Fold:
Amino acid sequence: MGKADETRGHGKAAQRRNEADVSEPPVVITGICGRLGNRLARQLHRERPIIGVDRRPFKGRPKDIKHETIDIRRKKTRDIFRSQKVAAVVHMGIMHNPRSSAADHHTWNVVGFQKLLDYIAQYKVPKLIVLSGAAVYGPNPDNPQFLTEDAPLMGSARFSELRDLIEVDMLAQSFFWKHPEVETVILRPCHILGSVRNASSNYLRLPRIPTLLGFDPMVQVMHEDDVVRAMILALRPGIRGVFNLAGSAPSPLSRIIELTGRPQVAVPHPVAELALKRMWRFGVTSFPAPELDHIRYVCMVDTTRAREVLGFEPRHDLKATVDAVFARE
Structure:
């Protein structure tokens, strides 16, 4: 579809929506300018009004999506909720940059989220969806084959940078119990692959992909569009709780790398860890050394609840999911 056809399609979708109900309250999406937030907004705006909250620019924004270029930590965020009724909040405005300071991470991820929760409770927003991640469980040699939603969140035991994500997850869980009037949904997807610039996708983009000598863990991956569809399913009335998410059947890491068509090189763990620490110190890698645990140990999730309650089934097989890492957008 060409850009002109796409624009006309968006216009018709907005017109149909406006004709259906001009008073329909909007869905607020934090982190809308990230790749997942962008994809969610572009699908969802055809059915309901959208307000994005993100201090970054929204390139190619459809005209019927409102974009508030603000920091969620600032009081101006409150005005969004004060000025109108909000149908739901989808929270993806989480900082993942491992090179940012711990103080920046904490104020953005934790303090900002606490303020957002206050607004949701004060202005009686009926639905909250928080995008967490299966990384909160942490890869560990003692993990069971599949982790259920009530497994302990041990991801920061060896990887302190995950502490904020775990705290956001736990704040959402606490909010779930304190405010039963709000349908709170916490989604914990496994490794997301696609146009996203996360550790998993960046790892598969390396020209030579390192593995750890003697380790070939089973891994779950998930297409970014399946994550978006899970968020849309979670917006339905009556859906609440914690849901693990994964794509097609688990696969050995070696098979996933094979599908990229790129060479892999096996390195002893002590050598890889020392090399990463030095490269990190000199700023020549985006992978901190604790990331190695994800290609060393198992961290797979049980998705029974997502299938039975959320009604989620992945639409992309393993090859399509890996291919999405290299697709041009």
Observations:
- The chain has eleven helices and 13 strands.
